Amino acid sequence: MPDSVHAMSPGDSAPYDGHYAGDPFQVLSRVFGHQAFRGRQEEVVAHIATGGSGLVLMPTGGGKSLCYQVPALCRPGVGVVVSPLIALMEDQVAALRQLGVAAAALHSELPEGEARAIFRDLHEGSLKLLYVSPERLLLAGMLDRLEQLPIALFAIDEAHCVSQWGHHFRPEYRGLGVLSERFARTPRVALTATADPRTVEDIRQQLGLTDDPVFRGGFDRPNIRIEAAPRESERAQLRALLKDQAGQPGAGIVYCGTRARTEQTAEWLRGDGHDALAFHAGMDAGAKREAHRRFARGDSVVMCATIAFGMGIDRPDVRWVCHLDLPRSPESWYQEIGRAGRDGLPARALLLYGAGDIALARHRIEESPAAPEQKRIERQRLEAMVAIAEAATCRRKLLLRCFGEDTEGENCGNCDVCLAPPKMFDGTIAAQKMLSAVLRTGRRFGVAHLVDVLRGRMTDKVAQFAHDKLPTFGVGKELSDGAWRSVARQLVARGALDVAVENHGELVPTEAARPILRGEQTVLLREDMLRAAAPAGGRSARMGGAAPAGVASNDPVFERLRDWRRAEAQAQAVPAYVIFQDRTLAEIAAARPRTLDQLASIPGVGRTKLERYGAAVLRALEG
Ligand code: ADP
Ligand code: ZN
Questions:
Q1: Ligand 1, closest atom to CA 65?
Q2: Which of 80, 280, 363, 445 is the least buried, fewest Cβ under 10 Å from its Cβ?
Q3: Which atom of ligand 1 lies at the shortest distance from residue 67's CA?
Q4: How many C-beta atoms surround the C-beta of residue 577 within 10 A?
Q5: Which residues lie below 8 Å from residue 33, measured CB to CB, with a gap of 6+?
Q6: Within the chain, which residues score under 70 in pLDDT?
Q7: Ligand 1 pocket, mutate which of 34, 219, 579, 602 (most atoms under 8 A from CB)
């Protein structure tokens, strides 16, 4: 640890709640109650605390916040954190205040009086962390004001918002480049979960960080079990997932491809007795904020959302994420599933998709007005996503490979493929039968009718078109309906069939169908198992080691602690996890401390929390 970190003693800076310390390790343990830094946090913290700038790439849940919070507390002055979302800022501030850190959020929607109070604190030097929206930071006079004050650092959270390459471009972020000119001597740290190399370079350019180091955390999230399945019966599949998760504390997210679907799904889930909400970009700002708030505070709440629901999900206990439609790239999918299990406890990611999704996404790219180069990139991303969905080998390996992480020859042990390897069979003949059924019926029918023809079912439609007279009629009795649908989907995935999604969903053969029909190509197909969704909590065989054990939801002591926490959170109108996370409560329940000293040794119990809640926790333990 460089000397300058230790050299700063509490006396060197503005007053700070009695917690001020120049040593990152002391801040980590006393303020945050953590025993050790994770991954590259230590390196980043040392670099920033000693005046360096840089870019931090870490997966969601990797622990980015500490990378700027700890150095801000180690350095004199206020740490200014640029954050794109009010809900996110407010939750972060609430969590910091629980830790005894003087923090505030400044944004354009704040009432005058409150903004004035923040400025007063700022000038008195009593604030340690100031969260601010980019537009508020760049508003006339704000930077002039900051130039008069000691600034510990600037942190730019969700830094990918600065890049037009990503899906979350925010024009206001562009103006942040000015910080590198006006505050050249102040540490600037940009943070993002995006790993896409193009976006990363763009962030460095825009924010003037090209000469500063990039800290790249490992992208694996071993506690998230990854599963993908063809969408056979969406509601039954979702219901099975919810049933597995029943009784587990925490929240879930259902990602839907369209706004209408978010509302329909939420309504259906509410009818099924779940606390379900909808979220999409078409809602007004107030409704969005309310949904965010309810999601942050609800106990077993399910959010049905489009990808507009992303930033600002700070809950560490999202237990599962289910996609009802194929994501457009592994990057987006990874970001979205990364919202599960930030607390490190077992979590699940289930992807449901169909042949129609694949075809629709392909058509959208072809028809988009984007430049050819951009289309090529989009196409590559989509095909990588299709490959993951259809994978017959470890899905995590395929996913990590998209981020340049090669995990040599080993399987993760915590994806559905590793847990129950699918059987492959030579599907050349089946593929030929399907393709010839498509051709002989005139390329005008969807999969349902084609399956009827193959299986020799005398339906009205078959009779109407005299398809029982075709040589293909009834040649496919050896496979079930589901298996035939699977053959069709796999042919779509490998590009031998297209689905006319804009029309009636009829299957149309492509060029790639020819060599299959001519018998020049062997087609290996995956025997789809409609697996009963397995509960999370399995072992991760190698990558990242064993997945942690789940929270026992039937432990009465744990339940008592949660009841206490719920009441406390309600009384203070803050999300429950800012009081204590499930993980911390579970550790307390397991350790059954009898004294404050014993309680203080449990990870997640810092000094302020011990002072505030120690006695109440001990009482709750006694029952
Ligand atoms: P990110 O912003 O990268 O998504 P967070 O900063 O929200 O991640 O951290 C994710 C979770 O990990 C939080 O619940 C946080 O309390 C926990 N965490 C982060 N760093 C540590 C650490 N060094 N020790 C223990 N828990 C940590
Ligand atoms: Zn695997």
A1: 6
A2: 363
A3: 6
A4: 26
A5: 602, 603, 604, 605, 606, 607, 609
A6: 1-21, 166-167, 312, 408-409, 529-553
A7: 34
Which pLDDT score, from 0 to 100, does residue 122 have?
95
CA-nearest residue, atom 12 of ligand 1: 63
Quote the ligand 1 centre to 495 CA distance (angstroms): 42
The topology under which CATH files domain 556-622 is DNA polymerase; domain 1 (1.10.150)
Cβ–ligand 1 contact at 343 (below 6 Å): yes
The CATH architecture of the domain made up of 24-216 is 3-Layer(aba) Sandwich (3.40)
Q: Which residues contact 172 (CB under 8 A, 6 or more apart)?
A: 84, 133, 134, 135, 138
Structure confidence at residue 61 (pLDDT): 79
Q: Which CATH architecture has domain 224-419?
A: 3-Layer(aba) Sandwich (3.40)
Which tens digit of pLDDT belongs to each residue from 273-327? Answer: 999 999 999 999 999 989 998 998 888 899 999 998 987 677 889 999 999 999 9
Q: Bridge-partner residues for 251, per DSSP?
A: 318
Instruction: Check if 252 has its Cβ closer than 6 Å to any atom of ligand 1.
Output: no
* Residue from 37, 38, 314 to probe ligand 1 pocket by mutation (most atoms less than 8 Å from CB): 38
Q: Which residues, in sequence order, are CB contacts of 225 under 8 Å at separation 6+?
A: 346, 347, 348, 349, 414, 415, 416, 534, 536, 538, 547
pTM of the model: 0.76
What pLDDT is recorded for position 507? 94
Q: How far is the centre of ligand 2, averaged over its atoms, from the C-alpha of 396 (Å)?
A: 5
Query: What pLDDT shows up at residue 548?
Result: 46
For 424-526, the fitting CATH number among 3.40.190.170, 3.30.465.10, 3.30.479.30, 1.10.10.10 is 1.10.10.10
Rg of the chain taking only CA atoms, in angstroms: 27
